[in-house]
Amino acid sequence: MGLQQFEERLGRLMEGTLARPFRKSLQPVDIARKLTREMDLNRRVAARGLLAPNHFAIHVSPADGARFSSFVDALARELVTTAKEHAATESYSFMGNVAVEFFEDLDLKAGNCDVEGTFAEITVHASLLDASGGRHSIGEDPFVIGRLQGCDLVLGDTNVSRRHVTITKIGDRYVATDLQSTNGTLVNGKKITEIALSNNDELTVGSTKLTIEIA
Asked: Is the pLDDT assigned to residue 3 strictly greater than 70?
């Protein structure tokens, strides 16, 4: 069921065009199948249950790498989702965030791929960029933006509330929550109460614009 969902999601993402160019070549679902098998073969028993690899190196031939090049980032994201879904089904846990990287291998023939899963303490980091180029790192604790001294980012803007908005790391996501501010918080021009942020989202706090970088 998980691999079928993978195909359906990727097919919608690529507007149904995958079946034709990949009919006789390496299929994305072949990679997903090898990835989940790698998780099963290399799972470990840990104090909190079964631990699965969370970092996957996908090795493909140069020919297949060229075919995937236009949507390799989208494919990697879908493979991450598939790994998480498989872990939920099998009651696996991870020691860090899940990541997928593609590499071209000159020794591989078209249609073949190797998937290598490893255990890595991969963490997501985020920071806020202000208009002057200043960078403000967001750690594990809630990051509060406001006019009050003692906030993690103090803004001398009369349109900003004393405690205006907080950014909290939840798993591998960063969530912005408006703290019932007087003038509200905007993300990409839309007023929010709470929202999961994406890389390069723009926050407007009072008259101040900030950009979040997530890596």
From this structure: no
Residue pair 148/167 in contact (Cβ under 8 Å)? The answer is no
Place of tokens 């960063």: 174
Spatial CA neighbour of 207 closest among 166, 163, 162, 155: 155
For 31-72, write each residue's pLDDT tens digit: 999 999 999 999 999 877 899 999 999 999 999 999 998 888
Mean pLDDT value across residues 195-214: 93
Asked whether the whole model's pTM tops 0.70, one would answer: no
